[in-house]
Specification:
eleven-stranded mixed β-sheet; nine-stranded parallel β-sheet; 1 helix; 23 strands; about 35% strand; elongated
Length: about 190
């Protein structure tokens, strides 16, 4: 009897129940319950998944995909081109981005999210403070719980006849931005 069903996967070199694509490209699944597919990928973390080309998933339950990406933190995810997600629950995507803060997200190109729970999107920017958000190019954000943007455009700002009218409007939340008709477009924040 001839077996007409090809064997697409085989056991990894080590690791309990690890599997790898049977394609001869030097990939390997060495972590318990890990999966490696693509070309030259390595899934060495427990229950990790590496796919694409020359990606490495070394963190527990991590996922690396794309080209030369690395997911080293527990439950981290790296995708794109030369991206690195090195901390727990971090995510890096795009081109040469780094998410090294716990729970951080980096996207764009050449940007780094090193603060815990920080977020950066842009080119060459850094979010290094805890819960710092940076949107734009070549910006460094360091302050805790602060958003950095190069230009902010508000498409809807409520206009009131007076500050008293703005304060009395229960639908405008505390901290909401508004203008007063007689001030020539200056912005105010409701306290």
């Amino acid at each position: 009897v001839i077996d007409l069903v090809p064997t697409y996967f085989t056991s990894g070199s080590t690791g309990t129940n690890s599997i790898k694509a049977n394609n001869g490209t030097g990939l390997n699944a060495t972590g318990d319950y890990s999966i490696a597919e693509g070309s030259g990928t390595t899934a060495s973390g427990f229950a990790s998944h590496a796919e694409g080309s020359k990606t490495t998933a070394s963190g527990t339950s991590s996922h690396a995909e794309g080209y030369f990406t690395s997911a080293g933190g527990t439950a981290s995810h790296a995708e794109g081109y030369f991206t690195t997600a090195s901390s727990n629950a971090s995510h890096a995507q795009g081109n040469r981005t780094i998410a090294s803060g716990s729970g951080s997200i980096a996207s764009g190109s050449g940007s780094t999210a090193s603060g815990a729970y920080s977020f950066v999107h842009g080119i060459g920017s850094t979010a290094s403070g805890t819960t710092t958000i940076v949107l734009g190019n070549n910006i460094t954000g360091t302050e805790l719980n602060t958003v950095y943007v190069p230009t902010l455009v508000l498409t809807t700002v409520r206009d009131y006849a007076s500050h008293v009218a703005a304060t009395a409007d229960a639908t405008l939340p505390s901290g909401g931005v508004y203008t007063v008709t007689t001030t020539g477009g200056a912005l105010f924040r409701k306290s």
